[in-house]
Amino acid sequence: MRNLPVKWGLSLPNRGVLFGLTDVDELIATAVGAEQSGVFESVWVGDSLIHKPRLEAITMLAALATHTRKVRLGTICLASFPVRHPVLLAIQWATLDQISKGRTILGVCIGGAHAGELRAFGVKREERVGRMKEGIELLRKIWSDDEVVHRGKYYTLENYHIVPKPAQRPLPIWIAVSPDREQVGDKVVDQAMRRVGLLADGYVTMGVTTEEFSKRWRVIEQTATEIGKDLSNFEVAIHGMVNIHDDKQTAYAQAKDYFNHYYGPNYPPDSLIRVWLAHGPPKDCARLIQQWLDMGITTPVLRFTSNDQLGQVKRFVDDVLPLLRLK
């Protein structure tokens, strides 16, 4: 296992603007406050176009880039990656990286297979994995200094030189994936983790048990070994939910209300909440977050399930962080 320092991330609810959880000014102020705290090293937003609409991720990150100077800026899961054309995305993301002076992390995934969204962009459900794999390959070709010649299953480019290039060379691409082993089986989980080991510069998971994380990491590590890939600086993030409140029941109720708006009724299930939602008084929050750190998470990205984003950031820094054992 790598021996990397813990790097705290903050996940902003850019979907929450649409149902009154927050507003644009608070999102920007929270990002600025996180940077000024000296604790948070990165700021993230979510992504979906039609399925779970929100303020568009790349545009939101560009706004944050102009108000911050140090924090890395990323998409916790660019769920629309399979429906975005890699050429347009390459130009947009390179521009964002230039605006931020090389502070971006492109976190991609295959998305949620929403039929209406896929149909709107002319993409079939079964194409998502292939489009993600080919899209990552094509982005890296476009962002290199070489002329692009690409003849793939989904995209073709003949003798193109596309600019702008990102400020970072290379620009990190992470994969977010957290399949439920009981639902999809060992083979599908292992295939997903092999893709992480083969294609990604970092990995993002949702809530997961220590045992499950160990199984996933073994596949990532084995795959990297097979291709001679160095994982010594490979970051593993968890997109972890947090609600800090001295009354545990109130914290849970606030989080459930947030989940109902953000994800819809009946999600997440109780089994996921137990490993994904750190809630209640600081000591209770610290207990679950410590489990994340102990299992090998290097980059905990915290999403505060509350309508007081700035207040939650302050409580984490003042009341929860001192209770944690860090590397």
Characterize the structure shown.
There is one protein chain. Strand 5 and strand 6 form a beta hairpin. The protein has one domain: Luciferase-like domain (TIM Barrel, Alpha-Beta Barrel), CATH 3.20.20.30. 41% of the residues are buried. The model has no long low-confidence stretch (mean pLDDT 96). The strands form 2 sheets. An 8-stranded parallel β-barrel has the order 1-2-3-4-7-8-9-11, surrounded by 7 helices. With 327 residues, it is α/β, with parallel strands linked by helices.
User: Globular, elongated, flat, extended or rod-shaped: what is the shape?
Assistant: globular
Task: Provide the residue-averaged pLDDT.
Answer: 96
Radius of gyration equals 19 Å
Give the CATH class: Alpha Beta
- Helix segment count? 12
Mind telling me the CATH superfamily name? Answer: Luciferase-like domain
Give the CATH architecture. Alpha-Beta Barrel
Low-pLDDT stretches = none
The CATH topology corresponds to TIM Barrel
Give the total of domains. 1
**Structural class of the helix and strand makeup?**
alpha/beta
Termini, distance in Å? 13 Å
Strand percentage lies at 15-25%
Largest sheet: 8 strands, parallel, barrel
Order of helices and strands: EHEHEHEHHEEEHHEHEHHEHEH
Q: Could you give the count of β-strands?
A: 11
Spatial ordering of strands, largest sheet: 1-2-3-4-7-8-9-11
Helix content: 40-55%
